[in-house]
Design goal:
homotetramer, alpha+beta, 7 helices, 18 strands
């Protein structure tokens, strides 16, 4: 439920306005140099209040290492990372106690458990992803040492879409703008649109693309834990994600078999590749050595400041107007979360694969 | 790896041309009337050779109950179902021993394991889905008793697309034609296109839509085992599936928050619903009582009869021309598989939810 | 690895001299009243420095609730409990950096991981059991509400053995003495022996007996997760535990089938029981409604102040003399740990059993 | 429930008088030579009707490989082994339909599931261990290639006890007699006693000792999956097992710390060992390179031909006299089952340990 992964297995905990959020990583290999500054920088990428297109809410995200690191290295015992909650204006949320916000999980949590921590969304809050980014940063440390990199970026906001493929883009530009789009022109348009939508009290969704380079052949487990199935689950479990496609995904439907198949070829040095990569680096659920890429759709943020019809806890019709500082568009902040979940999947598959070595 | 589900946990086994394919279901509730004829009819829906748009290969799919049923009822012990392989013309496949088929998992299996049963694709063959359909049929028996139904249909083949929503369609028409499309006009077009493509020696992909009715509020587990994340994994694990979206999925990006949010309302009898259902029946990963629906993209079948560039097991460039009887379009036959995987997810979530009752 | 249980699943973390020790409980039912004082009292029972027969080391065991409790009740989300480490005299342990203590896991951890937190034994320290007692206390809260009680006591220290069966003892006397033995006379002898052994710089082991009352019929899962198999694993996983037996255990070998079988009988009100209970409340791995009881052997504490032969990290022969404040006999302090692990098993089995209800 | 192991994960299925018994092994490494004759010989060791001290019931135990082996080697895909049931005289068992046998799981299964296959004990029958022996044989193939051997023997039947340690015995003698005791004199006494007890219509239990040689340092996972905790669970899950102890187990209570600690020493070639092995090759739950040994207690067979008091399915008092061909003592036949379960644990731990390599 709150765990993910088989060998590199994380368990996350914490509510938006509880004491703390954190993660226990069980199965972390020993002797990894724990790069404190890198974890900090990853957390910072996720943090709200980074720019005028994100929420102005300030969250302190100082993290602590509670266990599993000794003299700067992982020990193979459970590695626990935690962030305390500080900026908790719980009183803001008292009005949400008895009314269910449309698009949120207030109603479903209440019905499932008969109780919920309604302050800031409690466990359903996107603040839970702090724990994912912490764990993902640890996975990235290891993957980097194995020559594997993961880069995600915003490829669409509402109707503004990157037409170029990732191979035509300069991925070094991703972090150069606040919307995390590697095309500077499109980035400007996206930012302008988000700013305008914010004024309207409305919100926007978008698409994130993600590219993994350096993965060797053999990652992924048949038949249920296929690499892209596990990636799909990982990404779809992120708040607001509604769609996932590997390689050319839904577009593959518009090609015939003879067009869609990726022909193999061997270089003079017997290195094997495919001429095209419609399959996104995965064949039969196992990585084939090509770049792994996928896209994910994020719906617009459900917290809008416009008045909405809804019901209350007594099942009566009412209206709600959500106040507070919310993101007009959370997609740019979801970029490091997509990377983190991807890192967790690759890390787990890499360790699972050791059995065959 | 070859298991799926937490409480209702299936483990499948078998190769395309090995002795048998089967499934062990651990965690099946006792005292379910085992409907032998229903399982048979579900298997038949998946079977090749059903029509001239599927492969003419005949596969005997007589199944046996090896354990877990006593006097016509499940006993709560492992329920094992098995189908023997009979129509094994393994010699047909000898030429595939040393050459990797583009789009298939020959290469990735060989690299991962250093060995593979190359006859008919071995474990990577879509014949493995026989086991999924068997298990799904058992899940469906139970779900039916709980008032839950699952219906999938073909909503797109190549460029022929159903424009109507599922609410505007007569889902009783799905099984009335060989392409499993509830719109008879579109069905005819699809069939004609598949027949023509077959003549060309090429293949087509498509989209399957799936609707679940009758699911109560509360199915799905935060935060990683969200209902749609688990559905996504289940569906993406089906051979040739490249994309998954819940509710309006990628389309949700084209709506603003105020348009995409589903307003709650209460009836006079305090029954709660949402005015729209853009979220596809899931909020925060938990079912909200509305219909659950999703779409999945299937790439065109990789086995084409046209000549293709590829490599052999010695990493040399070569070409391949695949013979044998293959599906020009496997999407219609994937319909019962999509339903089976969906049933497995709902069944597991239903049992997991018992903890809260 | 560091998780235990299927439905009520705990993950513990922390090193003896790291920042903190704690536990995340995933799958805790919602709406349990969280009895803060009860958890505190359970922790206190495990605490060192309770008496002159335990170590004089003082450990602060103030615990914090980090997540999963809202307005005094569990919410169904991960429940995290943590104790900070304070009394860390790490310098005491510097001499253990390069020398392996006999009977301890210094050597095996070092060999397995290539690194270890040697301060106070790190993760192998019995201080880890703080987390088990915390989790066990939560399980006990729930079990109590279901009418299930668990009571463990010391039934043997070295050669001083309780000859009476638990049915002949007054279990209310257990906590009346520092050795946790319900027979006051034997308790005195045990205490005297421990005190004398302490003066000798030596240590003692013993046996703990445990009785569970109120468990209904049906707990335990065939065939591998039998109730007593899972209890065995749980108890054997406690530091220094070397043996486990359910019911009359090894003694059953001295009876013939006709003597050992427990005859069933029905009361006038159709309540079913067995005339004897040699099986310890378990038949075929499933509770039969009788009292569940078992015994566990604990070896003497490995930390003795006498000089011992050993090796160092360079694989050279050397000697070691362990200083510091160690328990001459840890068995009395293991009593609440045995209860905690038992509670975790029963809790998990109780929730697993809900599927059949 | 019916699965065991994390990486080398087996799932068993089947009832005593159902269609078949079998096991799916998921996570079996590829490219292991599958030694058909070895599996056959292991099955034969477990088989009833081997001698006049076991049941005269003949069970056909011809096994089939259903999947996972190709051209004589494992492929890394699920390996399924199955034995058909043939000698099913179900009518013999009709009288057991409504009466619960003392010492058996008839009552607990019926209460838990509300249904049971009463023929021959159904799933609770010791015939289920056929599947364990099949899986264990596969594990043994691999372990052997790693230089690890497992040998179990009968060290006690009723009051006839081997006084010698395993180091003083010739383990090659184990299979030289039908009681599987390496001391020929004691073996004769045991056989005579069993024969006499058979005439009395009664049954006997005993103790099995098991020795594992060649295991390297590092097997076992802290803190819950300690090597001896997992072995304890594995062995306690075998039918009729009531106690388990590692190393000197309950005897360790009779030693002081200074006597019980195993001093380390290094040879001239820096090979490390311990001077004694009271801990049975495990320190802190991790193998230390010494021989791993343990003992397990088995209660006398519950099926006796003497008349017994019991109840029927309507909760009425009645008596039962069990007919049919039952083992007067099942301990010798449990020897290969103990070895199989041990092999499964070591195999799983070996594969888990690959993460650290």
């Amino acid at each position: 439920m709150n765990s993910f992964g088989e060998i590199f297995r994380i368990t996350t905990f914490g509510e938006s306005h509880g004491e703390a959020l954190g993660v226990v990583i069980d199965g972390c290999p020993p002797n990894i140099h724990f790069d404190f500054e890198f974890v900090k920088s990853e957390l910072k990428r996720r943090k709200p209040g980074q720019s005028n297109i994100s929420t102005s809410r300030i969250e302190d995200e100082t993290f602590e290492v509670l266990s599993g690191v000794f003299e700067g290295k992982t020990t193979g015992t459970p590695l626990t990372l935690m962030v305390r909650n500080h900026n908790q204006k719980s009183e803001d949320y008292d009005k949400l106690k008895d009314v269910f916000r449309p698009g949120h999980a207030d109603f479903t949590y209440q019905q499932k458990y008969g109780i919920r921590d309604y302050r800031g969304g409690g466990r359903q809050s996107a603040r839970e992803t702090v724990a994912r980014v912490l764990a993902g940063a640890v996975a990235k440390m290891y993957l980097k040492s194995q020559g594997i990199s993961i880069q995600a970026y915003v490829s669409q906001i509402y109707n503004i879409k990157l037409e170029k493929e990732y191979t035509e883009l300069d991925l070094n530009q991703i972090e150069s703008n606040i919307v995390r789009c590697p095309d500077p022109e499109k980035a400007k348009e996206m930012i302008a649109l988000i700013e305008q939508t914010k004024l309207e009290g409305d919100t926007l969704g978008g698409v994130i693309s993600c590219i993994c380079k350096g993965a060797s052949v053999g990652l992924g487990q048949p038949v249920f834990d296929k690499l892209h199935a596990q990636l799909g689950k990982a990404i779809l479990s992120i708040n607001a994600c509604k769609g996932f496609e590997i390689g050319n995904g839904f577009e593959s439907v518009n090609l015939k078999g003879s067009e869609n198949n990726d022909a193999f070829f061997a270089n003079d040095d017997k290195h094997i590749g495919t001429k095209t990569n419609h399959n996104g680096g995965v064949l039969g659920g196992i990585s084939n050595g090509m770049e792994i890429f996928f896209r994910a759709a994020f719906k617009p943020v459900s917290s809008i400041s416009k008045q909405q019809d809804t019901i209350n806890i007594s099942s009566e019709n009412t209206t709600i107007q959500i106040e507070g500082r919310h993101d007009p568009c959370a997609v740019p902040r979801a970029v490091p979360i997509v990377e983190a979940m991807t890192a967790l999947v690759l890390m787990d598959m890499l360790l699972r694969n050791k059995m065959y070595q």
